[in-house]
Each structure stands twice: as C-alpha cells, then as structure tokens.
Design brief:
By secondary structure, this protein is of the alpha/beta class. The chain contains 7 helices and 6 strands; from the N terminus they run αβαβαβαβαβααβ. A 6-stranded parallel beta sheet has the order 3-2-4-1-5-6, sandwiched between helices.
Length: about 170
C-alpha cells in the first residue's frame, strides 16, 4: 500500500506562504500609537474595502485596547505575552502571528511591540515568515525633539534608521 507523504507540521499553510500584509509598530508608551493605529486601520479599510485586520499587541494598555475595540469592532485583537524583554524568542511571535491570521482569517496584520524589544522581535518575525512588512516608529515629543537636534542615543538612532516610516501623532 502506498501513501502520499504529508508536509511537515512546521510548514505554513499554502495560504500563509506569501503571507498577509504586515505592519510592525513601535514607539514609547505616550507616543500616540493607539490613536495612530486606529487612524491607519481606517485609512487602509477605506482604500481597500473588505480588508480583514488583526492586531497582535505586546504593549498597548488595556484602556488603549478597549479604545481600539470600540472604534473598530470588526478588528481581531490579541495580546502577545512577552515573558522576558531580553529574550524575545520566548514569546514565539511568528507562531502567535500565524495563529491569529488563521483564526481571524485576516489579510492584514498589525504587530505592536515595545521599543526595547522591537529590533529583536522584528528580526525574528522577518526571518521566520518572510511576509511583506512595513516597520513604523511612532515618536513622542521628546524623541522628535532629540531627532531634530541630532542628539538621539545610538539605540534610538538605529531603530529610526531601520524604520520604513517614522510618524509623530499630534496631541
């Protein structure tokens, strides 16, 4: 009796091979990420009606998540637990992203990350999934002033250099 070998369990489903559009967002706690995120999701949904969005959040406060849920009830929200900021691999970001995309049947994923873990988690996500992605850094007023004066600490400067887009949210 012959059988057809099956794909290894670690292989992503064919629909996920190319991946959804992925936006990775970081910024300090008071940078306006939640407001910017709501506006960005609305913009994308207006430009591409029918877009199903999911948000995987590691740092947004419960109040911010509630604001997003009230403003955008059709968006799937999920909390990413980071057991240790210095060991981003322990969070299994790629696995959590795939689970959320599959369960929400989303074609656009937003991953919100804390500044201190963003570069490691972004590298892990990019290496594991190869999905088309955009990296956005949301500046608070202090970062914006330091950037304008060219006085950013090296870590912040490198983070901004790796960003595809840097935004400041008006207060």
């Amino acid at each position: 009796m012959s059988s057809t070998p099956s794909a290894p369990e670690s292989s992503p489903p064919a629909a996920l091979a190319a991946g959804p559009r992925c936006l990775v967002l970081t910024g300090t706690a008071r940078s306006g990420k939640a407001r910017w995120l709501v506006d960005e999701i609305r913009r994308v949904q207006a430009e591409r009606p029918g877009t199903r969005c999911a948000v995987l959040s590691a740092e947004l406060s419960p109040a911010d998540l509630k604001q997003i849920a009230q403003a955008l009830p059709e968006v799937a929200l999920h909390r990413l637990f980071l057991p240790c900021l210095c060991c981003p691999g322990a969070a299994n970001l790629p696995g959590e992203a795939v689970k959320l995309i599959e369960s929400a049947r989303a074609d656009w994923l937003v991953v919100e990350l804390p500044v201190v873990a963003a570069t490691g988690l972004l590298a892990e996500l990019t290496a594991a999934l190869h999905w088309p992605r955009e990296f956005v850094v949301c500046l608070d007023p202090a970062w914006a002033a330091a950037r304008a004066a060219d006085t950013l600490p090296p870590f912040h400067a490198l983070l901004l250099q790796s960003a595809d887009r840097v935004v400041s949210v008006p207060r």
